[in-house]
Design brief:
Length: about 140
């Protein structure tokens, strides 16, 4: 039985993000790089590290959504949310540093990260039914 719908939605979103990230890299970003093979290989694996992280975050949130003791998974949710905020800071800072005109290009990514982190934060606020029953 699902105990935390916020985590469930965050898990599904993370899996969708991993697919779209991989496809965007394979079909758009990586082919457009005009660099040598070694440098392209570095871009390839760095790009797909983010894809793999998103897959793992998705799987983690799917498992966490079924946990009956939500207090045991709350730290992991906070950690993933902080990682996503740091990821956004790197995206925003890198874009600001290298291409201020590109800030409009990260708008969709920024909105997605805000929605994702918001869902995770809402999920951390869901109370354990076991703890509520002990206080009654």
């Amino acid at each position: 039985m699902i105990k935390n719908y916020y985590y469930l939605i965050a898990g599904i979103l993370a899996l969708v993000f991993s697919v779209t990230h991989a496809l965007n890299g394979q079909n758009t970003v990586l082919p457009s790089l005009n660099v040598d093979k070694d440098t392209k290989a570095i871009f390839f694996y760095v790009w797909h590290i983010v894809t793999a992280e998103n897959i793992l975050f998705g799987i983690a949130f799917l498992f966490m959504s079924f946990q009956s003791n939500l207090s045991k998974v709350r730290f992991a949710a906070w950690l993933i949310a902080i990682l996503m905020i740091v990821r956004w800071i790197v995206i925003f800072g890198g874009t600001l540093l290298y291409s201020t005109s590109g800030l409009k290009n990260i708008l969709i990514d920024s909105i997605a990260i805000v929605i994702y982190v918001s869902l995770v934060m809402l999920g951390t606020r869901v109370k354990d039914k076991q703890l509520e029953n002990k206080h009654l």
